[in-house]
Amino acid sequence: MLKIVYLGSGEGFEATKHEALDRAEVTHCEADKDALLRLMHETDGILDASMRIRITNEMVKHSPRLKVISCATTGSDHIERKEIDQRGIAVRTLREDPEFLKNLTPAAELSWTLLMACARRLTGAFEHTRQGKWVREDFPGVMLNGKRLGVIGCGRIGSWMARYARAFGMEAIGFDPYVDPLPTDIRPATLKEIFKTSDFVSIHVHLSDETRGMVTRDLLEMAKPGLIFINTSRGGLVDEQALLDCLKSGILSGAGLDVLDGEPDISSHPLIQYAKDHHNLIITPHCGGFSPDAVRLVCSHAAKKILSYF
Q1: pTM of the full structure
Q2: Does 276 have pLDDT greater than 80?
């Protein structure tokens, strides 16, 4: 019988077991690298719905039976590729399945939640009232109606962001060299125009050698005063030191992040340290796509890809 190691939440584990039925034995591995390494020695496939463990070349070397890794995510930058490519191990992600992904909205919903929370200074206002205070003038909100949203990456999530913006009376402009034409509710723009003229900018791009660091210091420093920046894609897309500097200087009035470069080892990350004492930065633990409803669907789908491989 095939052996599959599952990495992720309980909801996804149950969905994976249900999909495998009597075709494969599925073992749930918590976020423990040593435990995974022990299991990998006898596993045929890995279903990764977590991304919390970096799968290294050395780990793959100790996995003689491994044939396929199926990620219940669109990204796979946590997987080192040298040994995998040499062995011809298949790596599958949800990027291959645009039709399946089309109506999965949790990541877009969190992106919009972060935008609204920054616009209304929500975390600061909440902490204010927890301390028994009641001074609304300390928390002026940004009215969304009539503002401009700049969308970098106009695929599935970027398109949802533009739809949400339209519902709030906003204009959406966007940049994506790989989507032509752009969705009808997004006007094409350059990256420079997006940062110079937008009130909000949200990035929805896959991390690659081409896109790493694409949001540069120059772009951030030319931002329209008061810009709010949202990133729920990957921390490596952004010059994070420049982002921090622009928050400190006031060029950016706020930022909402669901991702950091180097995650999950973030305890000493400069942006985490800044967020401890400043309410204009909201950081969540890469939970945008984590909704039990969606997790069950994506894990079932990823499990089918492992089974079909064999």
Answers
A1: 0.85
A2: yes
